[in-house]
Amino acid sequence: MSGHRSIDDTEKAVRAKLGDTPVRHEQMAAVANIYRAAAAVRQHFENSVLRGAELTWTSFVVLWVVWIGGERETRRVAEEAGISKGTLTGVARTLQARGLMERKVHPADGRLALLALTPEGERLMSRVFPEFNAEEVFVTQGLSDDEALDLADLLGRIVAQVETRGADRRLELLDGHDPHPRRSGRRARTPQPTGPEGREVTDAGSP
Predict the structure, then answer these.
(1) 155 Cβ neighbours under 8 A, 6+ residues apart
(2) Residue 178 DSSP symbol
(3) Is-contact 62 88, C-beta < 8 A?
(4) Which residues of the chain have pLDDT under 70?
(5) What is the pairing mode between strands 113-117 and 101-105?
């Protein structure tokens, strides 16, 4: 693939950086290509069939989960879509505003919410999914049917490894401590001097 190093070139570059520090190059190549494949596939779908439907990858996955599984609790939708509850809230609001999804109060527990597709949402998924599947065929065109199934099995084993043993592994790496809060990469905000009423004073001196 143009713009990317070959596996051999990457191995040489890593050795140049780390010297004799042991690195499992086969596993490095596997994970690197999982990332590259996922990014390439997502970009292709968002720039083709999903763009025509005015959907992001995440919004499509949320619609898919509810379309296939039927009405379900928001927490289950988030889990199955592989996103946080906060992300789901924003996506669901956008889909509601478009008339594709509706939010209901759980009949047995008012603290819980349910998501369901509207008739318009059902029609959209019935139209879009065959087009989506055609692109799934396109991006895997270099594989035979058996190879596609083998790939699905291999990736499923990676997912199972992370889902079943990832939590324990993270605790091990953190030595039992809670993880540090995520950092956005932005520079920490410098506290501003305050005036007599506790208000921040800007360079212009405005309150």
Answers:
(1) 34
(2) P
(3) yes
(4) 1-7, 110, 182-207
(5) antiparallel
The string of pLDDT tens digits covering residues 139-174 is 999 999 999 999 999 999 999 999 999 999 999 999
At residue 102, φ and ψ (nearest 5 deg) are: -130, 150
The DSSP result for 115-172, as a single string, is EEE-HHHHHHHHHHHHHHHHHHHHHTTTS-HHHHHHHHHHHHHHHHHHHHHHHHHHHH
| Bridge partner list, 175 | none
Q: Which residues contact 120 (CB under 8 A, 6 or more apart)?
A: 99, 100
DSSP classification of residue 4? S
Please say whether the dihedral angle defined by the alpha carbons of residues 190, 196, 202 and 203, taken in this order, is positive or negative: negative
How big is the chain by its Cα radius of gyration, in Å?
23
Evaluate whether 87 touches 58 at the Cβ level (below 8 Å).
yes
Largest CA distance in the chain: 74
The SS3 call for residue 11 is helix
